[in-house]
Automatic annotation (TrEMBL):
Entry keyword Ligase: yes
Entry-linked HAMAP family: PurK
Family: Belongs to the PurK/PurT family.
Function: Catalyzes the ATP-dependent conversion of 5-aminoimidazole ribonucleotide (AIR) and HCO(3)- to N5-carboxyaminoimidazole ribonucleotide (N5-CAIR).
Keywords: ATP-binding, Ligase, Nucleotide-binding, Purine biosynthesis
Name of the protein in its database record: N5-carboxyaminoimidazole ribonucleotide synthase
């Protein structure tokens, strides 16, 4: 039985989509769902969560409460996700009882839920990964560190991390002493001296039809995605193709349904290493909403509803997306108005979230011909909306480890 096997035949598109999680990714599915005539119901933890504010149908409940997920499934043809933290047992029981399709299925999803499982599987398939170790004790952490000439490693909690929470550069087992209580094992990785980070996104339907987006460059600030440039500057056509093929292979190998993001490191000499996987729309794909024929949220819905995939072609030579990370200004409306007055080509997306320092509360995107001009415009808009004024200089952020 396929991992996402479903009571609805593959030739009958699903119409009722249950989305588990009420964050901004679920919220950004709502517009395309309306356009496609799909009924989306969101499982959110509170009525004021980002997607719950806009969805026509909302259930309040937790993603790890079997009854809440089951209730959502009973009202849906297919379940999909705003995040990857739903326990596999809950999803397996929904599949076993034939209540709804689950896309991506739990057998694929585990590789986005558990970084150790992801490393094991990708390494076994021969896909390029950083050197990595599994550590089940402080002694094993120290042994791995002792073997590293730099004396440093990246330690990760296998589960539950996001936006850099659960990732630390360490030089001693003492640096992860607080993690053992919740995590019996940790993932250790070499500290990759990457030149930049890339992201390759593909969409795949359960029958195997797939589509690749242009590979993009992403820059993090304090472990959080800050800027995305599409396509990745300076990546030639052969490398674009090679990386897209890698992502398509992974989607096929793992039997992913929906959007897959493969986060990558590129080293100075052009080596590509896989950082991690996400099986849902991803921050590095937000540019596609405004600057590709088919945005990632529409594409995810098409894939999980088993509709033909749309073109991934960009509609302009370059696009720049900059995240609005919460700053001092709690009211974004004034800055948004100012940014819109300055730049009629600017697209602004606000997530309806309370502003807290560093929190993703929205993003801006511009697309066009002149990459440096686009970057300047996107960063200026970000500063204006975040209440930082209209300084002419562009922010350049280094990638953080
Ligand atoms: P999360 O799941 O929280 O997004 P990631 O595993 O993607 O965590 O790591 C967050 C960031 O930390 C990455 O985008 C990258 O900048 C840095 N990072 C992660 N792993 C490594 C590594 N092995 N070497 C160097 N930097 C790393």
């Amino acid at each position: 039985m396929p991992a996402d096997s479903t009571p609805c035949s593959p030739s009958v598109p699903a119409r009722r989509i249950g989305v588990i999680g009420g964050g901004q990714l679920a919220r950004m599915m709502l517009g395309p769902a309306i356009e496609l005539g799909l009924a989306v119901e969101v499982l959110a933890t509170a009525p004021d969560e980002s997607a719950a504010q806009g969805a026509a149908a909302v259930r309040i409940g937790r993603h790890d409460d079997p009854a809440a997920v089951r209730d959502l499934a009973e009202a849906a043809d297919v379940l999909t996700f705003d995040h990857e933290h739903v326990p596999a047992e809950i999803l397996e029981s929904i599949l076993d009882e034939g209540i709804a399709a689950v896309r991506p299925g739990p057998a694929a999803l585990v590789h986005a839920q558990d970084k150790l499982r992801m490393r094991e599987r990708l390494s076994a398939a021969g896909h390029p990964c950083p050197r990595w170790w599994r550590a089940a004790s402080p002694q094993e952490v120290d042994a791995a560190l002792a073997a590293e000439t730099s004396g440093r490693l990246v330690a990760k909690t296998p589960r539950g991390g996001y936006d850099g929470h659960g990732v630390r550069v360490i030089s001693s087992s003492a640096d992860v002493a607080d993690w053992w209580e919740l995590h019996p094992e940790l993932l250790l990785e070499e500290l990759v001296p990457f030149a930049r980070e890339l992201s390759a996104q593909v969409a795949r339907r359960s029958g195997g039809e797939s589509a690749a987006y242009p590979v993009v460059q992403s820059t993090q600030r304090d472990g959080v995605c800050f800027e995305v440039v599409a396509p990745a500057p300076g990546l030639d056509a052969a490398d674009q193709e090679r990386i897209q093929q890698l992502a398509l292979h992974i989607a096929e190998d793992l039997d992913v349904t929906g959007m897959l993001a493969v986060e990558l490191f590129e080293t100075e000499d052009g080596e590509i290493l896989i950082n991690e996987l996400a099986m849902r729309p991803h921050n590095t794909g937000h540019w596609s909403m405004d600057a590709a024929v088919t945005g990632q949220f529409e594409q995810h819905l098409r894939a999980v509803a088993d509709l033909p995939l749309g073109s991934t072609a960009p509609v302009a030579p370059h696009a720049v997306m900059v995240n609005l990370l919460g700053g001092q200004e709690s009211d974004l409306a004034r800055g948004m108005r100012a940014a819109m007055e300055q730049d009629g080509g600017l697209k602004v997306h606000l997530y309806g979230k309370d502003v807290r320092p560093g929190r993703k509360v929205g993003h801006v995107c511009v697309a066009g011909e002149d990459l440096e001009d686009l970057r300047a415009r996107a960063h200026r808009a970000e500063r204006l909306i975040n209440g930082g004024g209209d300084a002419a200089t562009e922010t350049t952020e280094g990638a953080s480890a």
